[in-house]
Specification:
alpha/beta; Rossmann fold; globular
Length: about 300
């Protein structure tokens, strides 16, 4: 509910986002290895016992203008534990200082970086929440278009798929969503898109071609205004023969996964993500270790 009290202004969003280091801490049993890759802050996360060679490339949310590895540290760890995976996080450049395609370019760079460190493409899962979820899907689309080896799967937690905001503007859930409004997400979209057409699939994967993508999981809350675009995206995927599993969680709000400390539905949703990842990514061999990867960089 705190989101409702934040003024719809970039400086206000950034002020509250910077408080994330007080709210989100490394859970017990996890090891964090920070570093830099090409001048960008990066972070490897691994659990001391529930950790297999799968590598989750996690892209944080925040409307492309806020968010960091720190704000999404706990959420990424919870998904990693459920999936028995390592996590690699890269702080992509934020708008408006770095508009589209900066975030997409950085996500592509992160994927290439993992490949360069010996991580097999079929052991990588690209995931993210909100804007990061849309970015994850935009990334796999761009990888397909470039003819690169594809990751094993993609996961979007309440993904933001339509930066034109056409669907959210007419969403029947506007009066039910306790967090997001059409005005807020349009504010974010304007900062990131700037002069680019907001129907560009790199910005709005909703408008992209969906053939040739790896299996995807989309989770969305039944009370959020992004529900309509998630449903429409799933319908387009079915029509094009793409493998997109849509899970609608009744009465849930935008990225309810953050409330896993207190909300059973959050914990169950994260467990479902872990089950999906383990189904899609069987374990073969270990990639380079986190510390070795940073030394090589």
């Amino acid at each position: 509910m705190g989101m409702r009290f934040v003024p719809n202004h970039l400086l206000a969003y950034r002020f509250f986002s910077l408080q994330g280091h007080w709210l989100f801490q490394l859970p017990p049993g996890f090891h964090a290895h920070p570093g830099q890759v090409a001048g960008l802050q990066a972070l490897w996360l691994s659990h001391e016992s529930r950790c297999q060679p799968r590598v989750l490339l996690y892209l944080h949310g925040g409307g492309y203008v806020i968010g960091s590895n720190q704000t999404h540290l706990e959420l990424a760890c919870r998904i990693a534990e459920a999936a028995e995976a390592q996590v690699f996080m890269l702080e992509y450049r934020l708008a408006p200082e770095n508009p589209y395609p900066a975030a997409l370019d950085d996500a592509l760079f992160a994927y290439r970086y993992l490949l360069s460190q010996g991580v097999r493409h079929d052991q990588i899962i690209i995931a993210g929440d909100s804007a990061g979820g849309g970015l994850a899907l935009a990334t796999v689309m761009r990888l397909r278009d470039l003819g690169m080896p594809m990751p094993a799967a993609a996961v979007g937690l309440s993904p933001w798929l339509d930066l034109s905001c056409e669907l959210s503007a007419v969403s029947p859930r506007q009066q039910h969503d306790p967090l997001m409004t059409h005005q807020r997400i349009k504010h974010f979209a304007d900062h990131y898109a700037q002069q680019t057409c907001k129907r560009d699939p790199g910005l709005s994967p909703f408008f992209g071609e969906l053939e040739g993508l790896p299996p995807c999981l989309v989770q969305v809350g039944g009370d959020e205004i992004l529900l309509c675009e998630a449903r429409a995206f799933h319908a387009r995927a079915e029509a094009q023969g793409a493998s997109v599993e849509l899970q609608i969680w009744p009465d849930m709000f935008h990225v309810w996964h953050f409330a896993a400390r207190i909300l059973p539905e959050s914990h169950r949703a994260i467990e479902a993500i872990g089950e999906f990842i383990q189904r899609q990514v069987p374990v073969f061999q270990r990639p380079s270790t986190e510390t070795d990867a940073f030394k090589a960089a």
